[in-house]
Each structure stands twice: as structure tokens, then as C-alpha cells.
Amino acid sequence: MEKIDVIIIGAGAAGLMCAIEAGKRGRKVVVLDHANKPGKKILMSGGGRCNFTNLHINPNDYISHNPHFCKSALSRYTQWDFINLVKKHHIPFHEKTLGQLFCDEKSKAILDMLLQECEWAGAEIRLNASVERIKKLEDHHFKLKTSRGDFHCQSLVIASGGLSIPTMGASPFAYKTAEQFGIAVWPTRAGLVPFTLQPDDKAKYEVLSGVSADCIVKNEKTSFRENILFTHRGLSGPAILQISSYWQSGEAVKINLLPDGNILDLLIRAKQSEPQKFLKNIVASFLAKRIVDIFLPENLADKQIATIAHKDLEEVARRFQAWIVKPSGTEGYRTAEVTLGGVDCNAISSKTMQVMQVTGLYFIGEALDVTGWLGGFNFQWAWASGWAAGQEV
Predict the structure, then answer these.
(1) I need a labelling partner for 226 at 20 to 30 A (CA). Which of 78, 176, 254, 376 fits?
(2) Which of 112, 146, 143 is nearest to 130 (CA)?
(3) Residue pair 205/294 in contact by the 8 Å Cβ criterion
(4) pLDDT tens digit string along 36-95?
(5) How far apart are CA 278 and CA 237, in angstroms?
């Protein structure tokens, strides 16, 4: 049996950060992962350019049954700390919208940086290693049986992530481990995920597949302003992904397709200044023609605006600025960027990430019931929670 100070299960963002920090403290660290490569989700993130953090990290932009839990780690390892690490490795990056930071080139630069730091810290990564059994020993240590031999460790860190994107090797390992040790797990569901539409809506709107529009999307809990994207299956784009994390099955969402204007006012002015103009041409002057063709009532589209009653203009404005959509569901974990729910944070120390009732056992990253907004927030949680655990294990 191989004796190790710290075993980390999961060679993703949180696990690698934890390995770096623990290794810096002189701990003997081994990272185990059942995949054949480390950091697969890092490589595919951000369209292959890795949206590695955000300039505007705020604990309020995270969803958890314990909303205060993420504050400690995020305040002690900030976005500026990770940006400094990126700069240390001379990785060029740029800001996109809303403070999102991306690599100029490939996501591989971030993974290579983490692997280099692991090497400098003396942390070892072993792949194709499936954990078959975990046993707690009387001295607060752990014994692991794996496909690559047996291990004995003082600290065991679960960094195996959630259920999103199963093709990347996602599994319920973290939740099963939590349950083994009597730790509650909040029900999980897909987050930051596209909506699917009811059959009638799908048939109506799928002709717009590929069309995007700057919108405000809202439900009773919150609202987001970013692009939406019509797809063959339903609705996607940043604003939809954001609201999906706050959406419950059966709910409707309201979409404003022209957030910077008041369509009714525009139509009333046009009725006075251009009374002979056709309604469809007026609306197409401030909205994409393909959207106008689908949303505008057919019986009004080819009428001169002077002939259209005020109540009909109100209905036109409502269709575009208060479009009510009731999704049939989401695309699920297959395309979800994150998993909502997970290991109950009330059982975990917010400072160390250690299970309060199980000395030596830690949970970090997406395995926990902490889910950030789209735009680098979930990576920052991975870095921060991994860093926090790395100071203690």
C-alpha cells in the first residue's frame, strides 16, 4: 500500500489548484482521475479559449442553499490572484463583455500553467485511475482501493465535479462519497443550459435557428440582459443560460426583444409621421426582419399603420416586448455548463472545505452546492475553493 499525505480525486480546475497549494506546503500529493487526460472541461470551456475568471466576482452571483458559504474562499483567493498567476506565466488574455476574461489563444494555456505549477510543487497526477472503495480508518486517515493500487492518506479531497457534460467523464462520485459519510446532498439539476420548447412553439420558432438578439429575459426571481439565440430545439444564448439556473419546471419566462426602446411609442409616432407605411416595414426598421416575420400578426403585417387600431398596436408591442415563453424543459446535463445542487455546504467548513464531522475529508469545486453565473464565475469558485482546501490538507 502506497502512503500519501494528500489524495485528490479529480484532475479538474479545483483539484489541480488544491494540488498546487498543498504541494507548495511540502505535502506529498497525488491527484487521481478516471479520465485519460487531466482538465478536459478546462480545454473545452469558453469555446476552446477558457473563460478563466471574471473582473466582477461577487458572492451574490452564486446560487446555494447556504448563500454565505462561498464568501470566505472568494475573498481570500480573488480573481486578481488568479489573474496574477496567468500573468506570471505570460499567457495573453482579453476581456469580453461583462468582465469575462478569456485566453487570446487556446484553453490549453491555462491547463499547461496548472500542470506546470503542479510539477513545480511536486504534486503527481495519475490518470486512468478509478476509485473502487474508500474506507475511513480509526486514526482519521483513509484507505483507498483503486484500479491503480491501494493508497493510505491523511487527507482526502473530493474534486470530481458534478453531472454536467457526461461525455467529459462527469459522474455522481462526489455525491455517493458524501452519502457514504452521512453528508446530505441537495437534489441536482442542470444549470446554465439551453431551453427546449413546447411542440407548437418549437414548430413556430425553429425557422429562426441561428438568429440572435440582445434581450432582457426575466422570471419572478431575477432578470438578465444579454443575447438570446434561437436554435432547432429551442432557445440558447447567454441570457437564456443565465435564467435557466433560476428557472423551475413549469414556469414561464418573459422576454423583451427590444430592451432599449418602447415599441408602442415608436408605433404611435410612426402613425403620425408615416401613416401610409406598412406596419411590417416600420417594425423591421428597429428589429431583425426574420424575427418580425414570425412575431408580427399576419392580419396586421401588410396594413398601413394609419388603419390599425390602438389596441392592436398595443398587442404588437406586447408580442415583442413581453413575449411569454413556457419552456418544455432544458437540454439537460448533456449541454449544461454546471450542476445545480450538490453536497450540502452546511456540513462543510467555509474556511477549509473540510467536512465538519469527518476529519481529513474535503469537498471542493462543482461537487458542492455552489453554482456561479455564466462568465468565469464557476472557474473562480474552483480556484478559490481549491486554494482554500490546499492551505489545510
Answers:
(1) 78
(2) 146
(3) yes
(4) 999 999 999 999 999 999 999 999 999 999 999 999 999 999 999 999 999 999 999 999
(5) 32
With the C-alpha atoms ordered 189, 348, 161, 158, is the resulting torsion angle positive or negative?
negative
Contacts of 296 (CB under 8 A, 6+ apart): 279, 280, 283, 316, 319
User: Cell for 136?
Assistant: 475511513
Longest dimension (CA), the chain: 87
* Of the candidates 160, 156, 134, 181, the residue with the CA atom closest to the CA atom of residue 353: 156
Output the CA torsion sign for 347, 349, 352, 357. Answer: negative
- 0.90 cut: is pTM over it? yes
Which residues are 151's β-sheet partners?
2, 144
Phi and psi, residue 5, nearest 5°: -70, -50
What is d(CA 223, CA 226) in angstroms, rounded to the nearest whole number?
A: 10
Alpha helix segments (H runs only) across 89-195: 108-121, 173-180
